[in-house]
Amino acid sequence: MNIRTKSKVLDQPGIRRSVQRIAHEIIEKNQGLENVAIIGIKTRGAYLAERIAESMAGIEGKKIPVGALDITMYRDDLTEIAEQPVVHATEIGFDITGKKIILVDDVLFSGRTVRCALDELIDFGRPANIQLAVLIDRGHRELPIRPDYTGKNIPTSKKESVEVRLKETDGSEEVVVVEAEKEER
Amino acid sequence: MSIIIRNGRLVDPKNGVDEKIDIFIDKGKVQKTGKNLKDKAGTEIDAEGKIVAPGLVDMHTHLREPGREDKETIETGARAAIAGGFTTVCAMPNTEPPCDTRALAEYIIEKAERTKLATVLPIGAITKGRKSEQLTEMAELREAGCAAFSDDGDSVKSAALMRRALEYASMLGALVISHCEDRDLAGDGVMNEGYWSTLLGMKPIPREAESLIVERDVCLAERADARLHIAHISTAESVEIVRRAKKQGLKISAEVTPHHFSLTDAELKSYDTAFKVNPPLRTEKDILALKKGLKDGTIDVIATDHAPHLENEKEMEFDHAPFGMTALETALSLSVENLLTEGLLDWPGLIRLLSVNPCRLLGYGRGSLEEGAVADVVVIDPSAKWVYEKEKVFSKATNSPFLGKKMTARVTDVIVSGRETLRNGQMKY
Amino acid sequence: MMKEKKKHTWRHKDLLGIENLSEEDLVLILDQATGFKEVLARPIPKVPTLRGKTIVTLFCEPSTRTRASFDLAAKRLSADTLNIAASSSSFLKGESLKDTARNLEAMKIDMIIMRHECAGAPHFLAGEVNAAVINAGDGFHEHPTQALLDIYTIREKLGKFKGVKVSIIGDIAHSRVARSNILALSKLGAEVTVCGPKTLIPAEMEKMGVRVVYGLKDALEGADVINVLRIQLERQKKALFPSTREYINLFGITKEKLDRHAKEDVVIMHPGPVNRGVEITQEVADSRYSVILDQVTNGVAVRMAVLFLMGHNKNLEQKEVPTKLHN
Predict the structure, then answer these.
(1) What is the rounded average pLDDT of the residues B184-188?
(2) Do C2 and A120 touch (CB under 8 A)?
């Protein structure tokens, strides 16, 4: 499959600014960080959650609990996907019951990943509420899910896809819209 | 009904013939052989590029009748024999009931005669009911037509009884064929003991289960001055014992099956029960020893140990499936592929092992194409390639690991007592 | 910088033995198992991964712990499980394994976990059905998931395989655990020693790439891991060893022998069930060296990983067991 990069929608400072803004919004909406914890969806959501937590610590002088969620086992498309999923461990080192949980992912698309994450989170306990933060919202929702905090809205076509590249996983910092030139299955 | 076979390479090792000459058959006998015969015959066979040889003789066949006609009958077995080039087969007595009386021996002979296919020579049991308790009436069995004696499937359990059997048979000049297997040592084993049994976790049969009884029976035969034939020899040690005995001048002979010189125990890694045979498939080292034995004359005979079983009996856990594979229709090709094309033997050598020597050991006046001999003849296309397909098997059973495999050399015509039974690959009866 | 490793894909329809697996396959299972082990520690230790899948445990030989471990693993993954206990040769009375296979196929089962007293029985079954077949022990041949949980435990304790010295003590000849462990450990670069009475060491053992010793001292010295096999007391009746007493004297693992010959931080494993006081003393089985209970926990995680890989497998190579040409 030939993949063509169409456009770069965020660069390194852009990502940094979005993370900072989300951090501010979370603090504002929750009137501080009392009883707040943050959990990222693996892999990139987990790194973003870590960054948002860092950023909030810079503002409020307090590091909140950070967790990482691997949603592979909750996916509803396991029987359909061609590629074999790899299971990683979920790392939530704290009790989520009664907490305000900020769930973080890189790109919000159909909403199915978030659905999996909600199912999984609820198996860990009963949070006071769950809020959703995403770096990119690219539309095309298939489930009634909307983000509470959005880094950037990027209207896309279904043929396109959005790639978030982070230095921890990809060695670079950018968000690009790519398009597959030819579909091959 | 006269037949003339022209332009073939006549291989008749007993008479030292190996040249391109014609053969004229009439009244059940070979009438004459010679270059460019002018005679006219009812049937003309053009054997250009083919081998013409005395009909093959299998010293070791399981026809299952009477008792297990669901697996094979005398008729289906005789048909498979013809397809494989065998004009005579020796039926082992481990039927139900075992062939231990004149009535049973005669039944087998008559039943075979009616098929008009291969000649069947019964082998009489050594002991009544093959129970290793009492000797059979060997003299009468011989008179009824039994070609030799064997409790094949088992060794005669006690050395004392085997001694008596050898003594008694030697008095009659009869050949005793020994299935050499120490049941205690073999236990409930299902394959050769070695690297593969260890890796596959299968119950092992030590090689000594065979060689120990070969040694025992050779000792006893020496004392009894008896003619002893070792059935389906499979280990290097057994070959060595026979070689030594022959050097000493003892009347010991031995046979090997095509599967024992073609396959090793590594095949069992597939857990395919078609490879489950007794004695078990051995190792590369044993194959080399068997081939050496065939070349230097230690091993006298290639015999099939054709052992038909039902499909549902073999489609089982390896431990529960019966031992044995069918072999009549593949024996010649396997011999050609493994012995001839490797240059180990030539055609006269191969015909000796498959026809001349069995006849000599059995005191059976075939295996020769001299003028006046009974006309048992096989015509072989030595370079024909064919596939051993399930749909085209003549035996009732298809328990062969060679199903679906490409084979070399094919029998095209078979004449039994001057009667055409196979013509251009087509069965006449 | 954390570039993701090149992903290895599972391509086997069946798990019949360690023999058919590559080093990458083994590592993949262990890595996946880490994810599943975490699930077991959750407040609700159950995930919906195999919802809608039906898994049969077909045990033609008595077993409690392996079956329970598989059953639990399947349930933790939300699969439906059906247990069939059968005598060695028949599922229903008089029925052959082939018929059993056909019946299971007709029931639209997704996976069959099979224990059988005959080596190769799962291979036969795998050739007959489309369902994935997992070997839960066939005769003396293989017990792949036991070896997987053993190597998982070793990796957990020692963090590596290369150069790790593992001694397997006991009845090697009749042990599927030994065979699968030898194959797995060799593929991963560990050095395996086997030790037991000569009557219980199978022929040409060295060709499997192991060191064979008959003195326990030689097996204990320098070993990082000692895997003690259960000794079947009925072997004594077949004259494979003279008495339990003599076995204990020569091969029984005691604190005293460990103190004298073994490394201080040696890891003691046992596939269970333990004959306390025979192959291993109570003191050792319950000591700080012992990881016997970790093995049990890891067994569930490893089996979850296996079921997961087999349950979501779109990357099949050809069947490992050829379907018969006839029929």
Answers:
(1) 96
(2) no
